[in-house]
Batch of 2 targets.
Target 1
Amino acid sequence: MTTEYNKPLPRLVNEAVSRPFWDAAKRHELVMPRCLNCSNMFFYPREQCPNCYSDNTEWVPVSGKGRVYSYTVVYQPANRAFQEETPYIFAIVQLNEGPRIPTNLLECEIDGVELEMPVEVVFDDVTDDVTLVKFKPA
Amino acid sequence: MTLMDRRRRSDTLRGKVAIVGIGEVPTRRVIPDRTMYGLNAEAAKIAIADAGLRKEDINGLVTDGAAALATMAEYIGIRPTFATGVSMQGASGASATTVAASAINGGLADTVLVVMGNSRLDRAVPGGASVRSEWEEAYGPAAGAGTGYAQIYTRHMYEFGTTQEQMAIVAANQRFNAQENENAVFHGQPASKEDVLSSRYINYPLRILESVMPCDGAAALIMTRADRAKSFPHRPVYLLGAGMEQSNANIWQTDRITTTPVKTSAARAFQMSGYGPGDMQFAEFYDCYTILVAVTLEDAGFVEKGEIGPFYESTDTTYKGSFPINTDGGQLSGGQPGLAGGFRHVIEGARQIMGRGGGRQVALNDLCMVNG
Ligand SMILES: [Zn+2]
């Protein structure tokens, strides 16, 4: 764990809505919001289910397994703090449970990514307080 | 009242639309734990239920200028065929309602949600947290808007076998066109397909010559009633059809990223016009990145989904060709002066139809499709 992490950390849209996700990540658990009215599992978390508008939602643990839906290899990042990491893989992973999540692929060559390739979650404790949710080939 | 007065009146909004449902989130000094979009979504939920409708029945969205339309549509879970933000300070609500009425009367939508709201808490978030600041920025997205478009590109290659060589033709043909456009930022700087393919990556598979260059500039047009248009100096450019669809703010929220909202918007435009893709003589299509021109041409119906790569290999899309595309060089070679970058496609389409394309004038200039 580095004490000099200089990259941007997640700035939460609404603590009350998504704090449980980040707290779970810190415990190395992946959770997703699910609607108790229509059973829709959705991501990103928000105040009401985007399918049926119910605000009766719960957090459920998911497998942490999924597939690469798509990806890009970043050579010129928006934020210079990432320059030393280039080239790196920014991907969309589709969880086996359905929701898609933006992430990085670790332990993977930049020319070794295939779409629909199975991946599994990796918890990256970037600071004492923040754990990012990343993936690696399964 | 004269006959002309009566006809004028029948052309107005008078008696053409009605409000059929309302919703209101109770006003409080502070509503804890709620964002502006969340409050809007709740008001929408109440109004939709009040009208006895489902969200699928809503195909228009008008909000105030403070809300990002795509984020609003994403929160409410709709893909309206008409969406706009109205900025008129305190008169925004009444103005938005009037704009909604005009859109319905003009056939752009049947059932419009007008919604606006405020969260003081939201405004207190330093630096304006967003879906991106929470879920993407810590993972290092690429410069510009290329992260999402590159992922569309990667997925298109996977699903349809599209190649980077094919996409390089998109950029090279537009660069050829720009050599006849003195207003283009890359006028006087030709670039071949090989030049495109040897340019550096911003983020794979997007290279710098497949990406727009931010620029300064501005554009404008004048529109008037069709019955007056013939008395003006230039050949009138009539609007024959129009369509829209408001999609997601975030690419990972879209079910199929290789299909764009143009599938709906172009179909509606063609339906209104009475023409089809085969009738169009040239096209001016939004082009922040090569892949976007490609997928939107597919979605408009000029080729089948997945066939755009072979189309570019077999078709001359320069201004001299059988189907000219982005005759002024587009944004890729003309440059992107903010939102005027996309506006250039409207301007260039009109310029060509007026017959004022100069060295890049297309041969057949009666029917053009523009995508912005
Ligand atoms: Zn639901």
Target 2
Amino acid sequence: MKYETVIGLEVHLQLATRTKAFCGCSTKFGQKPNSQTCPVCLGFPGSLPVLNEDAFRFALKVALALNCKIQKIIKFDRKNYYYPDLPKNFQISQYDMPLAYDGVVRIIAEGAGKDIRLSAYIWKKTRESSCIRKERITALSITTEAACRFLR
Amino acid sequence: MKELYSLSAHELQKMIAVGEVDPATLLDAIFDRIGSLDKKVRAFALADKTKANDRLKRASEKKLGRLYGIPILVKDNICVKDEATTCASKILAGFRPTYDATVIRKLEDEGAVLIGKANMDEFAFGSSCETSCYGPTRNPWDLERIPGGSSGGSVAAVAADETIAALGSDTGGSIRQPASLCGVVGLKPTYGRVSRYGLIAFASSLDQIGPITKDVRDAALILNVIAGYDEMDSTSVDVPVPDYTKSLTNDVKGLRIGVPKEYFIKGLDKDIENSVKKAIDVFKKLGAKVSEVSLPHTEYAVSTYYIIAPAEASSNLARFDGVGYGFRAKESADLIDMYLKTRSEGFGDEAKRRILLGTYCLSSGYYDAYYLKALKVRTKIKEDFDKAFKDCDCIVTPTSPTAAFKIGERMDDPLSMYLSDVYTIPANMAGIPAISVPCGFTANGLPIGLQILAKAFDEGAIFRAAYAFEQNTDFHLRKPKL
Ligand SMILES: [Zn+2]
């Protein structure tokens, strides 16, 4: 049996906002662990997320640059899972309604132009280390359709 | 002269303003009352006179606000900085928030004095105040009976004159149902009218904070203070806050009142049906235009609610894992063991039941069939109200199908407990405001409540109807013998 290679890409990029995705805490690099926190990013009971306006604006810029259509209604979803560095035990991300959709970038492959269709989802990046410092930095996830059949 | 503790906030407000009452004397009277009664009523999860005195002192040092010197009790799921805030659950034992909820900040900015935290059903899961880790609160009208729930402590304390007013939260009736069962006024404002920053979430698409008071004017005074947009709560809506006391006109001439035919059904207690029908006659006599309306999807409200609310609760309660704060089980072998032991030991039975139900409804493969479908039914329920409010300004119904039941009576029968909220759940589903006001007593002398609903952000219509009803009846003036 012969398999055909079909590839889709998920590209993550960090948005260079001065504050975190859903609170006003600084994202400045190199500070003392857990020094840039508040009830919201610590996931304390009763606290609520408020979307960072810059994050939204930056994501829109990327979306427009990638020729996307912009969703009329912006919706966030919860991805529930238990992990000790995830204070609320759910991640706020976009699931079935990406911020931007139907985007396209043209690449040159094997001498010919190919269109790659894609969508962009906002999500918050959880920290990779055992401190809350990086919790909730905004990330943008750009996913292409699984249609890159021409790559060898 | 009447005892200070028995007065309403608006009466006391006037007396304080002219120097007739010293807020410190009032606070003493309230704490004496708590000291002599709360052993019986058990409305408080926490009452701290020293701290209340400090708060009064701080209130006196500022410009005197609209609620200066008025003692207020707060439900134990609303965060108060440095005060134990537990949702009446063992899993939050020892938790002290690092910040004040927005409603607390607003009340204190206007000089109100927090006197403590009110008992409640654990995480607001219940209609009887029996699932609290502190034990049940009792109904001041009959200490063998439940006060209703989940804001049972807030409501019982108002009914027993252990506080002047209180805050509760309402997800499916948790302010209105106990207000009905204890003969006081309880308002669930429009979803988005009052900031929920600092309210420990139960079901995020349904929860709303509201006032519990001795009369309608007090509810308007408190809503004036706590309502409004808050940049810390994206679900609060930037709609101007009118002065709600302007709606207290004692005039309902021409007000269009709808009575939904689907609400007068099997299971509705006869005494309650009679009282509500008499209440409707009062409105007719006062010149309101009463007509029948239809809310055809009412019968699906309870089952839809028991998918949406537990689903959201299961996600909201995931954070109580023993890692950062609150209770942590001892001697766990590893991380997973710590999660399992902490949550098994920390949550009560009803909380576990709802987490299981909710997790199931959200799980892969069932999400579409349960949660998503329930959201669609919810839209139908909301459309029922949209349609009905084309022909009327207010809708009038019973608040609860029965009066207060005996402690323990429904604890082994969750389904009968869930039906306590059959008349209150639709307002949460539709996001609209609703109030319960006293409208009579059963043959056993237990209070009965009348529910008045209006369209979103039209609390003014509710106040207009509720105040006129109250001014032409005397049910709100009767007090339990304690
Ligand atoms: Zn923060």
